[in-house]
Amino acid sequence: MLVRFLANRWGFTEFVVWDETNSIDFYNILKYTGSGMTGNEYTSPRSKAGTSFNIDPILYNVHLAPFETDPLDELMNGPIREKLGIIPTNVTWGGQSDDVFSYHEEEFMKPVIDVLDKILNETTLNLIIYQGSLDLICLTKGAMNIVNKMTWPGIPGYMNSTKTALTDPDRPGQTELFVKAHNNFKFYWVINAGHMVPKDYPTAARRMLLRIVFNID
Fold it and tell me: Which has the closest alpha carbon to 14: 1, 3, 35?
């Protein structure tokens, strides 16, 4: 299946990038995975490109496994579980992550430009794209390329709209995000944040969310 083939190529591309960058973190380019994997370990998956070699477990261990010890995980499986008192013993918060990752892997490389156009052309919904400037796995340039390929009639108006800089009130003079908006389409660039915007820059994420909820932009 072509989609599966492309999904595997996405994974193999990560191995190449890790090899060339000493295991840079795809979620934040100013961090490193700390995986300890070496170039020799990457060679094996790359050499098997085009075979039935399954890289899912490796990608899962790098991208999702670290969050199994996240404070949110401890909160949901501890105090929240006890407070609710109705969660079966065989059900844990995050226990489905591996299956979800595997089932959705074929969706990773599917284009969604037609979906974005459909939302703007056929509904009154607000379409929001937000992007952490340090994200590599869903990089800003890629998101901007998607916008450039959209056929929504409002795109020229969006392109001609002003890109506004918003500063961090707790850090005078420091830009925390940019926003560019036209009608019901809005694009936010969050500075000093990677893929996990709320985790990397929680105060900026909160202020961005408030702007979205109250339709400020």
Answer: 35
